[in-house]
Amino acid sequence: MALTDTAIKALKPKEKRYSVTDDRGLSLEVFPTGGMAWRYRYRLNGKLEKVALGKYPAISLKAARMKRDELATMAAMGESPARQKQLRKVALAAATTVREFGERYFVEVVARDRKDTKIVRRYLDKELYPAFGDRPIRDVTGADVQRVVFQKRDHGFEAAAADIRNLCKRMWDYAEVLGLVETNPARALPVRFITKARPRTRNLTPDEIRIYLHTLYQSGIRRQFKLALHMILLTMVRKSELLFARWEHVDLEAGEWQVPEGNAKNGKPHIVYLSRQTKELFGELKALAGTSDWVLPGRSGPEKPFAHNAMNKALDGVNVPIDPFTIHDLRRTGSTRLHEAGFTSDVIEKALNHTIGGVRGVYNRAEYAGQRKEMLQFWADYVDALVSDKTVVLGSFRQKTMAS
Hints:
The protein is α+β, with helices and mostly antiparallel strands.
């Protein structure tokens, strides 16, 4: 029996995919997810062939029947619709450049699945497109991917190199699904040859915090980097949140730093309550920033912030005589020490601007403003006591011992 629009709308998904027939070889396949797709089956020289026509409702019943009639005419003339479709895919693959497909992948996959797309956008524009953006995507080889990735690795950016490799892997996976390539060139480059996996448990002990701050301020890196790396420890913010901070977001009188949703990893606006020590750090950064709108203006001019990797390179230049750690580990350090001090997880997670999962995340909308202010001041005072050996406050310690 021929299908109708009403009958199609009444179709329900089942545990396994199933098909309903229309007429003259046209059928509609229904998936467990609820999606539907048109199929056309026909015989050519006694052999059964089939071809996909597209998804419903993007392809309506009327449009699917018109396409079926067109392909039936082709088959009656001895031509294979399935073979012609495959040849068109090959021609498309031959003509599609990495840049063209990269933009398609960005729209159809990245922008749909991620709230923060800035890193992927940067890797496409700054790494992949300059290397082979104008080449057909099917012509890129494992050696091409390796060259880009190893160049990044050998310049000291192992984590970024692994990210670029993984981006290539996901991007060519999608191209493979769409029939534009037959193999994925990134599969020939395992991550273990790019960087060593780092445990996500590293946090600094009290003695290491003292050594870190002493070494930081005695190092030869720029004063802005010293202050910024110190501030991340005290505020537990993400590096990117500080890098993209503007002075319009900072109210020293109110003791609040507004992190807009565009700067937050989870896409949610966030308030960082400023301890007395953090206000002092902001005050010095304000003097160093001059007329710039950015809290951390870059070397190239006051109109741009620090480069994304600048702070990582600065930390590498400090040469802290303790086991290796990352900037992100400073956040974990604050969280760990504050849990040990007895502060509740909800207050700490809110200060970290983490999204709380499960039922608690759905129903708990508390901001814990008062508790967070108290906690961050406690944390700053605690770090004060560590770096001063409980003899002087941080302000005088910075003036006497931490001078650039």
